Backbone:
């Protein structure tokens, strides 16, 4: 694996800064803004960027101010689901919700895409991107004829839960499809730890990869001037050793550095 192109930019201009949307959790009656450390490690050590958290509850103006000094946005996975009220789904189908996360992520997506800020979504992040652009979600993508199980075995150790478990095939010419082709020959194995997934694809998105059972596993934003893409699996878990995960995070990191350099060159 060759060294990323961003090394020179790091030395000359300092690190690109990527905002990470947090999850709202309540523990023993106390609210916390949380993010898994593995996402931060993937950004620091594989993408080569400096992560900072974007707390929920910001006004749209404060969020716009926050993103104005960022070079990228990461939408992480989470235990909660996107609220069905946002895409016309049945309210009773999902109970684990985080409405504050929904609002923050949707606003961040809108600002990032309109401002040309690189955007990368993982698992819930893919679902947020699809709904924010007008698509819908399925509450259980494992249901249906010829579908494989897309849920992890919770009885296994964590590393085995996140181990590669099913094949995907690259499709089209978007950012993730290019990463797949650079790092592997089709098909490639990825992990699978999700119940929710894309039902109707948003018009503004293109499919980058599908599972062998047809489930959409990666998308890119059509006509985006920079990296704007999302995956349904979790590349952060083995970000340092899995070739595809390395390729994706480095591609995102390089886009963030390109944004930083272009921003600093502006008069």
Residues:
């Amino acid at each position: 694996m060759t060294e990323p192109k961003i090394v020179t930019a790091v030395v000359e201009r300092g690190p690109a800064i990527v905002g990470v949307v947090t999850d709202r959790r309540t523990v023993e009656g106390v609210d916390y803004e949380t993010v898994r450390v593995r996402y931060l490690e993937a950004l620091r050590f594989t993408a080569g960027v400096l992560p900072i958290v974007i707390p929920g509850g910001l006004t749209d103006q404060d969020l716009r101010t926050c993103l104005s000094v960022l070079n990228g946005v990461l939408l992480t996975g989470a235990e909660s689901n996107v609220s069905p009220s946002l895409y016309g789904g049945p309210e009773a189908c999902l109970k684990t919700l985080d409405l504050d996360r929904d609002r923050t992520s949707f606003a961040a997506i809108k600002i990032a895409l309109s401002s040309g800020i690189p955007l990368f979504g993982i698992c819930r992040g893919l679902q947020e991107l699809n709904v924010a652009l007008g698509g819908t979600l399925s509450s259980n993508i494992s249901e249906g004829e010829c579908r494989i199980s897309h849920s992890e075995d919770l009885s296994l150790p964590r590393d085995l839960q996140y181990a590669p478990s099913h094949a995907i095939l690259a499709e089209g010419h978007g950012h993730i499809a290019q990463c797949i082709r650079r790092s592997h020959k089709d098909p490639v194995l990825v992990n699978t730890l999700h119940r929710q997934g894309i039902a109707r694809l948003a018009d503004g998105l293109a499919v980058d990869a599908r599972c062998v059972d047809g489930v959409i596993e990666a998308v890119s934003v059509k006509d985006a001037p920079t990296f704007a893409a999302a995956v349904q699996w979790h590349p952060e878990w083995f970000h340092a050793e899995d070739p595809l995960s390395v390729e994706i995070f480095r591609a995102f990191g390089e886009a963030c550095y390109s944004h930083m350099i272009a921003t600093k060159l502006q008069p």
Q: What stands out?
A: The chain has one domain: 7-265. Residues 7-265 form a domain with the Rossmann fold fold (CATH 3.40.50.880). The mean pLDDT is 88. The chain has eight helices and 13 strands.
